[in-house]
Write a structure and sequence with these properties.
Layout (H helix, E strand, L loop, with lengths): L22 E2 L2 E2 L14 H13 L5 H4 L12 H14 L6 E7 L1 H6 L15 H4 L7 E7 L7
Parallel strand pairs: 3-4
Antiparallel strand pairs: 1-2
Length: 150
């Protein structure tokens, strides 16, 4: 077994002025304005890919899926994530766990929310991510800001 490594991934996309899709962890969030990007702009999947590639010393998603390559226009980021995990497996790396935190839309726009959304309003992003690395633990949760402004 190879040594264990940890990676940190971060991604952000600006909101589109109108329309578009908002995809988080492979799940489309209905009724929201979308994020602008060359692919589907899935910031959850992109962050995870960057963390995995970084941990393995394989660069970042821009190295593997450049935004000036028309092959990746509108791409499903979950499929790109599958390719990243396959690349890692080919190099004998295995994903053990991933823990992802997503700042909510109102926090992204105003950075001043003080209460988390009710649990009944949360959706689990894990079902689309789990098949990527079936033996690993993947969790995704929303963040909230308690009386802080950034």
């Amino acid at each position: 077994m190879k040594d264990q490594r940890a990676g940190i991934g971060y991604d952000s996309h600006r909101f589109q002025e109108s329309g578009g899709r908002l995809v988080l962890g492979g799940i489309e969030v209905p009724g929201e304005s979308g994020l602008a990007g060359h692919s589907d702009a899935d910031v959850v999947a992109h962050s995870l890919m960057d963390a995995l590639l970084g941990a393995a010393g394989l660069g970042d998603i821009g190295d593997h899926f450049p935004d000036d390559d028309p092959r990746w226009a509108g791409a499903d980021s979950i499929e790109l994530l599958r390719e990243v995990v396959a690349t890692l497996a080919h190099r004998r790396w295995q994903v053990v766990n991933a823990d992802l935190t997503v700042r909510e839309k109102h926090q992204l726009r105003t950075s001043c929310s003080s209460t988390p959304p009710p649990r009944s309003k949360r959706t689990s992003k894990r079902p689309r991510l789990a098949p990527i690395a079936p033996r690993s633990m993947v969790s995704v949760r929303p963040a909230h800001i308690d009386r802080f402004r950034f």
